[in-house]
Design brief:
- By secondary structure, the protein is α/β, with parallel strands linked by helices.
- It has a single domain, classed as Alpha/Beta hydrolase fold, catalytic domain (Rossmann fold, 3-Layer(aba) Sandwich).
- Helices cover 39% and strands 17% of the residues.
- It contains ten helices and eight strands.
- Strands 1-2-4-3-5-6-7-8 form an eight-stranded mixed beta sheet, sandwiched between helices.
- Helix 2 crosses helix 3 and helix 4 runs antiparallel to helix 5.
- The radius of gyration is 17 Å and the shape is globular.
- About 4% of the residues have low confidence.
Amino acid sequence: MTTHKVLISDGASLHVKVLGGDSPTKPLLIALHGAPGLSTHAEPEATFNFLQSKFRIIIYDARGSGYSSLQPPYTNERWVADVDELRIWAGADKFVLAGGSYGGFVSLDYALKFQGRLLALILRDTWAWGTRGMMRALKTVLTSDKVKVDPERQFRVWTGILKDDQDFADAVAEIGPLYAPPGAESEEPEWKSPASRPATYAATQNAAFSQEMPKFDVRSRLKDIKVPTLVIVGRHDLITPVSDSEEISNGIPNSQLAIFENSGHTPGNDEPEAFRERVRQFLSSVESD
């Protein structure tokens, strides 16, 4: 594994790790984390490091998150452009793109803009319509008996009007059990990494959920994505439920849907062996095409 600070064309720098060595003969996989301003490369590193023998894997903190620059704009368009600049930096004409949760939104936007640069697409626990997703997530948070929350604070986080970084940290601390499968309520949510992880950044979350999510709606364009796609979802995901992944899989012509029956929002954490086997199976089928 090597760690890099990759300078982007607008002057921002990204905290990037490369797993699996730097050999250009290996195909490239870029994996995106979720939760802008909160999550980091830690989740995709844990999820996809099993592929190191066959792939060069790029994991990184998106701008506005982790150890990367806090330089705006915090937009899907800019996050998509950052992905493509990392592809160029890695020297790959085509690659596999994997995105979980909010990383799935960015991955869908990338596929619709730069489809010819993809070998395959992996989408984990995500949705295709931002407004419905935000409002349903807020309803779930406010009505679930699994958590006790401050309604005003949850309203702020899901609509992108957080007061400050501490407000963000307090909001996410309340809802961790909603991301875990039944019987695992004490598990840490996907964004949790070692205690030394960077702070939460409310400005990133606010931009994503007040500006980007209300206009994110790719339902009518899913049919235009022709690359092989694996859509993954946990049966017990309360934030991006199975119906969202079914909608995506039904809309993308060359797609496969994998529902993990004992998982919440992160099947790679909840059912690691089954997750790895399913991803390997999918990537092997892509290689043989």
